Amino acid sequence: MSAAYPSGWSELPKELLCRIAKRLDTRLDVLRYRAVCSSWRASVPVPPKCPALPVEVHFLVNHPTRPLASFLLSQTTVYRVEPGFETHSRNKTWLIKVEETKKDNNFRVLNPFSQHPIKNLPASFPKELNNLNFRVVETARVFSMQQMRDDGDDCFIEDNSSLIRKIKLASNFDSSSVIVAIKRGDLCQMRVNNDIQWHLFDSDVHYRDITNFNGKFFTVDLYGVILGFNENSFSLEEVHSPLEQMVWEGERYFLESCGHLYIVVRDFYCCAGQVYYDKRIDGFVKETRPGDYVPVQFRVYKRIPSDHLQNRYDWVEVNDLGDRVFFVSTNCSFSFSIRDCDGCHGNCIIYVDEVDKIQRLDGEEIDADDNDNDGLRQLRYAKVGLFNLANGSSAPIAFFPRHLAMFWPPPTWLMWNQCSSSS
């Protein structure tokens, strides 16, 4: 009787392997599948990178002698990593943000609260990770574009944030080459390596965020007007007026959670007179004295099908996220579950406080660590906070060590597994 069944994973019949392979959702899943053994590897080809990034693109810039510049369009990915082995650590989830370089399978580890590489990782941080030793789930994708030096290496002339606030690729980017971006508050579109300049949609609106969801691009402006338009034809298909009763300048973030589209609003109406929009940086600034308290208020809205009109949608405010945590920043926003995280609670928003000081912009105050990109100066200056959606309270994330441990520092089991594998 036992002879009728395969004695090991490597002896599973080919038809069963094919059925398993068809249920793999991501490129990472396929790579882990192929790493099991030679027979599994032979049953499915190496998956192509989709989209095929990083890629070099060229378009016009304002330069008297070199008007056509080279830029690198690249992808940053946030992964949720969990140990695939027994560990006594209470922290069994780590969120790592990495950027793939031009060299295949080489990555840079980025600051989870910004888009800068971490220069000084712990000495024990592994040089490579074996995906078979961990459960790895892709949580979010972020795209950026940086101008390259003339020699074409991985050094950049200036930081992406000074040029482009946000970039999104069309769902069919590999065939359409369409990207949409918010550049200095303007909404722009281009086809990579077909166009040599951005095409401007509307110069009279200050856009704050953009995303794509179910075949549409969604944008939101400074005052909360939401537009949804077709990815291919750019025809306008949804228009939503501001969701708040008091129309006010605010920061707004799109994110997807459990198959639904949400928008998180940081409402500055609660601190009118202290925080306001400044065109010089296309962002918000505060004018406060030492010891002044700037209140924090967030609201969350969910896009749902309309009860009254077919093929129409409404945005409704939600006050309970269940076991979900929303993370929001200009660079990227995403959600994750804390169901298996000891000592953590859901129904909260972890946010990067990107409101700048007007005194620093005016040159009256110098931030000595303003160019410190090696970690986590946001933590030292309490620029990362946690907002409790249930009671409206907020505090620096340092007051919530179990939540902070999911971002930084790297967990001990990550280094321990590397040492164990090496030995």
Describe what this molecule looks like in 3D.
The chain is mostly beta strands and 423 residues long. Helices cover 11% and strands 36% of the residues. The chain is built from eight helices and 25 strands. The strands form six sheets. Strands 1, 2, 3, 4 and 5 form a five-stranded antiparallel sheet that branches. The two termini are 40 Å apart. The model is unreliable at 363-375 and 419-423 (pLDDT under 50).
Q: Which blocks of ≥5 consecutive residues have pLDDT under 50? A: 363-375, 419-423
What's the main sheet like?
5 strands, antiparallel
Shape: globular
Count of individual beta strands: 25
Helix content: 10-25%
Find the structural class using helix and strand composition: mainly beta
With helices defined by DSSP (H or I, 4 residues minimum), what is the helix count?
8
Rg of Cα set = 23 Å
Mean pLDDT: 81
User: How far is the N terminus from the C terminus?
Assistant: 40 Å
Strand share of the residues? 35-45%
